[in-house]
Design goal:
heterotrimer; A: 6-stranded mixed sheet; 10 strands; B: mainly alpha; MetI-like fold; 10 helices; globular
């Protein structure tokens, strides 16, 4: 059984269709990269996986649980799916330590001490242990994104969603975030990553999905995608992004 | 609960014999509007002057105007009403004070009420005018100066026409406020809408009908003012210029 | 010019003005700040809710309260509260409610509409991603409201909430229309008894002015300190 399963998913904003019959899956331990031009629906697609964006048609399963079922306990499901956002979305009124422990205590019911301990362990893993008492606004973008990854990991997720994790970062900070993600991948974490970082895709991904205008145009193993994409749109996109 | 509703009460005659209760309320509304409109004229004129002076490059003017705004903003309207009505005539030279006190009935309350609301609201209008002027790009003033306009000319022909268009929406809500605030004038004897509803309640004992009538009239007045001001806004709209934010849009 | 006036009337009646009058005003203000902001926040959440009935009710309530004068609302509640009380305790006759309780209810219900609009702007100023991040971590609606959205909204809005509170503090003087002895009521009772309008109303104006100016200065200081680092 696949970890994430997306079947014939369509979504409309009013009369505008943002996703059309998208079907794909992510196996346990697999890393897939989703790319495509802006407005292609890739960010919307990844947000449907933990139901931040509702869908009007199709089915989505995470670990066998149907996401778009009104009976599903969404908070419980979301607590098991880690998510990292383009704009970090650390809570600016809480310290780094509080950011890490908030959901652990509220959602998982962990004791404050246990939550702090676990949070700090992951903070140490992303190399920021000394910043635990700072506020997010006192950290650089790259540091904030690493804290956001630690925050997601503290919840012991069964898989991780990354929504353009590096596109709001200054160029010199991109690598520190990609390194943490690469480390995570080698440890066997199941990951779905929306990104333009084709170098990262080439190093880490098992499969690459290319989206355009709400359609999944290409869904291929990494070597095949970078070797010779079948669709013309993907070829053009690759040519543009690799030469820039 | 045993409240007896009687919605026909509006068509009953009042014991004073001056007409129906509905008529009482409508006369009240007339006084509300008469008070608010007269005060609005004062508020706009004074507010514009004070607001402009606050942005003028003269330290003394700025200080005086800041003090003016603080004074009227930090004393409750009701206390200001009492100051105009009870206190001012005592502080003026005796013959003037007596003349004010001896004005015939509605005017002895109406005039202080209008002055009070006018000055009170002028401080708030001044705030809006200042904010509106400061929201204009600085380049506008420089452009005026560069063309050889004097400072008063720059204000008259460049800055103020733009400012008033920008602050039209907040001015609308200030006008709605002055209508609502005119109800405070009942404390010094102006029989405006709320006071008229009180009078109706005291004579007819139909409390909730009386207050419902006043409430409905206030809401209708609000609606008329809002739609009226939207019409004015459309009439005065300048294509391509809605507010200061639009300026960055290149051509 | 002030020769004919006797400002000693103020010092002679100071205990009454402060202990009876000002205490009423301050207690009323304090309670209404808390209740008004609590009800106002709930109204704002209702207004922003995706449940139609809730948002329609909140919108209607807020618009109604904001389009009628406070004086009229004071009269409304003065007569309405006894009936509501009778309805709650199933009494056949209207219940007598004390001046203080009646004022607290009136001002809380009225100010809630104004606080609601401030809190609505505050809630809307929080980027959508913050709510997403809360949900993505498994928080439910109430948890993400209470722990993520409202604390930030509240901080962003503190200066405006305090400015509104200064307005509300001044507006409490309108309980005068019910002959309640708040600070202004106390002043006006002495003014009428002793025929000393000038002295007492000038004194009242000065006291209100000083208190409001002090609070606004504090607000400005606070504004600089409290801003959330982003």
């Amino acid at each position: 059984m696949a970890m994430i399963e997306i079947k014939d998913v369509s979504k409309w904003y009013g009369s505008f269709q943002v996703l059309t019959d998208c079907t794909t899956s992510v196996e346990k331990g697999e890393v897939i990269v989703v790319c495509g031009p802006s407005g292609s629906g890739k960010s919307t697609l990844i947000k449907t996986v933990n139901a931040l964006e509702p869908v009007q048609k199709g089915d989505i399963f995470v670990d066998g649980v149907k996401v778009n079922d009104p009976k599903t306990n969404l908070p419980k499901l979301r607590a098991r799916v880690g998510m990292v956002f383009q704009h970090f979305e650390l809570f600016p009124h809480l310290t780094v330590r509080q950011n890490l422990s908030l959901a652990q205590t509220l959602v998982l019911g962990r004791a404050q001490r246990e939550a702090d301990e676990r949070g700090l362990r992951y903070l140490d893993r992303v190399g920021l242990a000394s910043h635990k008492d700072k506020f997010p606004g006192q950290l650089s973008g790259g540091q904030q994104q690493r804290v956001a990854i630690a925050r997601a990991l503290s919840m012991d997720p069964i898989c991780m969603l990354f929504d353009e994790p590096t596109s709001a970062l200054d160029p010199e900070m991109i690598n520190e975030v990609l390194e943490v993600m690469q480390q995570l991948a080698t440890e066997g974490m199941t990951m779905m990553v929306v990104t333009h970082e084709m170098g990262f895709a080439n190093r880490v991904a098992n499969r690459v999905i290319f989206m355009d205008a709400g359609h999944i145009v290409e869904d291929a193993p990494k070597a095949e995608f970078f070797g010779k994409p079948r669709s013309e749109r993907a070829q053009q996109f690759l040519a543009k992004i690799l030469h820039h | 609960m045993n409240y007896h509703w009687n919605w026909k009460i509006f068509w009953d005659l009042t014991p004073e014999g001056s007409g129906t209760y509905l008529h009482t309320l409508l006369v009240g509304l007339m006084w509300t509007l008469a008070t608010a409109l007269a005060a609005w004229v004062i508020a706009l004129a004074l507010g514009a002057v004070i607001g402009v002076l606050r942005t003028a490059p003269r330290k003394w003017a700025e200080r005086f105007c800041n003090g003016y705004v603080e004074l009227f903003r930090n004393i409750p309207l009701l206390v200001q009403m009492f100051l105009w009505f009870f206190v001012l005539p005592e502080l003026l030279p005796k013959h003037l004070g007596d003349a004010i006190k001896q004005m015939p009935p509605p005017w002895a309350s109406y005039v202080p009420a209008v002055l009070c609301l006018g000055f009170f609201t002028s401080a708030r209008v001044a705030e809006q005018v200042r904010a509106g002027i400061q929201a204009l790009p600085r380049g506008q003033r420089m452009a005026g100066t560069a063309l050889g306009l004097t400072l008063p000319q720059t204000y008259r022909y460049v800055i103020l026409p733009m400012t008033f268009r920008i602050i039209l929406p907040p001015l609308t809500s200030e006008f709605l406020n002055i209508i609502k605030n005119s109800s405070v004038a009942l404390t010094i004897g102006v029989i405006e809408l709320t006071a008229a509803a009180r009078a109706m309640q005291e004579f007819s004992f139909q409390v909730f009908e009386a207050f419902t009538g006043a409430t409905v009239l206030y809401i209708l007045t609000n609606i008329v003012v809002i739609y009226g001001m939207r019409w004015v806004e459309r009439r005065l709209a300048i294509p391509g210029f809605i507010g200061p934010a639009i300026r960055t849009g290149g051509h | 010019m002030f020769g004919q006036f006797d400002f000693g009337v103020i010092t002679r009646n100071l205990p009454y003005l402060i202990k009876v009058g000002m205490m009423f005003t301050l207690e009323l203000t304090a309670l209404v700040i808390v209740l008004g902001i609590v009800f106002g926040t709930l109204l704002a959440m209702m207004r922003l809710s995706s449940i139609r009935v809730l948002s329609a009710f909140a919108t209607a309530y807020i618009n109604l309260m904001r389009s009628v004068p406070l004086v009229l609302v004071i009269f409304w509640f003065y007569f309405l509260v006894p009936y509501i009380g009778a309805w709650i305790i199933r009494s056949p006759t209207p219940v007598r409610v004390g001046a203080f309780l009646s004022s607290v209810i009136t001002y809380s219900m009225f100010e809630a509409a104004y606080y609601a609009e401030i809190m609505r702007a505050g809630i809307q100023s929080i980027p959508r991603g913050q709510v997403w991040a809360g949900y993505a971590l498994g928080l439910n609606y109430w948890q993400s409201m209470a722990r993520i959205v409202l604390p930030q909204a509240f901080r962003n809005m503190v200066p405006i909430l305090l400015t509104q509170t200064i307005v509300m503090f001044q507006d409490t003087s309108l309980v005068y229309v019910l002959s309640i002895t708040d600070f202004l009521g106390a002043a006006s009772k002495i003014a009428e008894r002793d025929g000393r309008y000038v002295e007492l109303y000038i004194f009242a104006a000065v006291v209100y002015f000083v208190i409001c100016v002090i609070i606004s200065v504090l607000v400005r200081r606070l504004q600089r300190r409290i801003a959330v680092i982003r």
